[in-house]
Design brief:
This protein has 253 residues and is an alpha/beta fold. Helices cover 47% and strands 15% of the residues. It has ten helices and seven strands. It has a seven-stranded parallel sheet with strand order 3-2-1-4-5-6-7, with helices on both faces. The longest helix has 29 residues. The two termini are 30 Å apart.
Length: 253
Amino acid sequence: MDDLKGKVALVTGGSTGIGAAVAREFGRLGAKVVVHYFASGDAAEQVAADIRTAGSEAITLRADAHSSAAMRQVVADTLAHFGRIDILVNNAGALVKRVPIEQLTDALFDDVVDLNVRSALAATSAAVPAMRAQGGGNVIFVTSVAARHGGGPGAALYAGSKGFISTATHGLAKELAPDGIRVNAVSPGVITTPFHEKFSTPAQLESMRLTIPMARLGSADECVGAFVYFASDRLSGYVTGQILEVNGGQYMP
C-alpha cells in the first residue's frame, strides 16, 4: 500500500499509546510524520527514531495541548518544516481525573474541555486553510466509546467532552466537504495504554472486560487500521462524517 507515501501527517499526542502506534504505522507506510508531545519527550524521540529507521521522515514538536495558541503553532511549525499537511490526527487528550459530579470544579471543567475539545478544534482550525489551499486533506478525530455509553465511574465530564468531538466530526464533515477535506473519527473502546494505567484500577478494567463480547481488552496496534483507512483516499475516498468503533463489540451502534 503506497497511498500514504510522501504525505505529511501530524499526530497530536503521538508519543505514547494509540498516537504512537498510529505515528509509527504512518511512517512505515511512507508518510512524513510530525510527532507532537508535551511531557513524554524521550518517548516521542523514540517514535520519531523508529519512523526514520523505517525509511521515512519524522520530527517531534512539543506543545501544551491545553493552549489553543500552542496547538496552532504546532500546525504552523509542521507547515514551515514540510510545506503542507495532508493528515491531521487529533489524538491528544485525557480523562484528567475521575470525580463524582458533586466534586466538579470550574478548574477541572476547563482542564478537561481545553485538553479534549479546544486543542482538537484549534489544531483543525489552523490546518484547514492549508488543506483547502492544497486541494484537500483528512482530519481524524479521536473520540471514545465513553461518548456512546457515558463513561465509567467519575468520567461523565470526559465522556461529554468526547461526545462533543463526535458531534463536531459530523458538523465539520459537512462544512469542509466542498473543500475536499474529509473529517472522520476513530472511537476506541478499552485499550491497554498509559491512559488506563493512570486512570483505571485493575478491578475497573476487569469490570469493563466483562462487558466486551471478545472477552479481552484491546491494544493500541489494533486501533491503527482504522486510522490508516480514514487517512487513505484510496480506501475511504467516499467516506466522511463517520465514527468507526474499535471496541471488541462492547458497543454496537
